[in-house]
Amino acid sequence: MASPRILLAGGGTGGHLYPALNLAAAFGRLAPEVECVFLGGRRGLEARVLPDAGFEFRLLPLQPLYRQRPWRNWRLFASAPTVIAGVRRAFRDFDPRLVVGTGGYVAGPALAGARLHGVPAVIQEQNAAPGLVTRLFAPGVDQIHLGYPEAEARLRVGGRTRLSALGNPVAPGSDGGSGPDGAGGSAPARFDWPRGRNLLVFGGSQGALGLNRAFLRDLEWAARHAAAWPDGVSVVWIAGPAHAAEISARTAELPFADRVRVVPYIDDLGRQLGGVTLALCRSGAMSLAELCAAGRPAVLVPLPTSAGGHQLTNARALAEAGAAEVREEGELEAGELWSLCRAILTDDARLARMAEAAAGRGRPDAALDIAREILTLLDRRAA
Questions:
Q1: Are residues 152 and 234 in the same domain?
Q2: Is the pLDDT of residue 167 over 70?
């Protein structure tokens, strides 16, 4: 008898792809007889990641949806027949018993295919403000798993839909220490964190240009004003491959250059947060899930151009829980971010309160918890 297959569809960005990969790893641990297969887009991150992930996959010629420039959506309509044919082939070749959508443009066609083929369907929504695909398909799916409980108020679900808020599926071991491998990967090289309290500055795998500029301006402001550097505090700055050299050269000219370490990237950061005291970062759902799983508080600067303003909604949810401070990029004044981070890092009581609140929102076992719920649909169908 052939192994039952689960089709996971999500991509475009790591925020949609890695939840799918982490769920696949969880399925492998809980039900080794289940085979996971993937549906993605040719333009997304998945085109580079899936070939080395150890799963069968198909990539579709998906086009983005231009919300602000709708006249560019002609490509979306022109590619529709090829995409529909690709989904049909994927269902014919893979014959999935279950479909899981984790967001991005590919999730919509996959969930539509599940409906047409009478296959149970599940959505894993990462953000506090549900995305377009989630809102469209929520009334007709079997399960929806929310990363943020705040998202429930923004959804209209069907009478048979089971809704739960189990957190976002971070990789096993995303708790500040080492853990078992994720989806088909080996243990990462351990990053050598400085001793003492560390401020981690990062904006995602490629860095964040706006955040990089704002924090560099703040450090140069601190140097001009001869602001005292706090004792025992270091900055580890993930500037991104495209920006690390320039930022490293600029910070080397500062009087406190020995306290600032600029790197292009830290591999598998979510499993290496044990050396972090406070983060200064964007507010993508998976980054925040990893920080909370590790009990690490943050100063958040949401990406102003995020779809539907979802990063600002994510950030506000953590701020209301006491786990973060939020500053909007367009309203920043010179020195504001560094002054805020410095104040938190030198206030033991404030730091402890924020860390406790972050840990309270952390769900390090979310991938396994969600996978267990999803597997009940397979069991029910087999009965």
A1: no
A2: yes
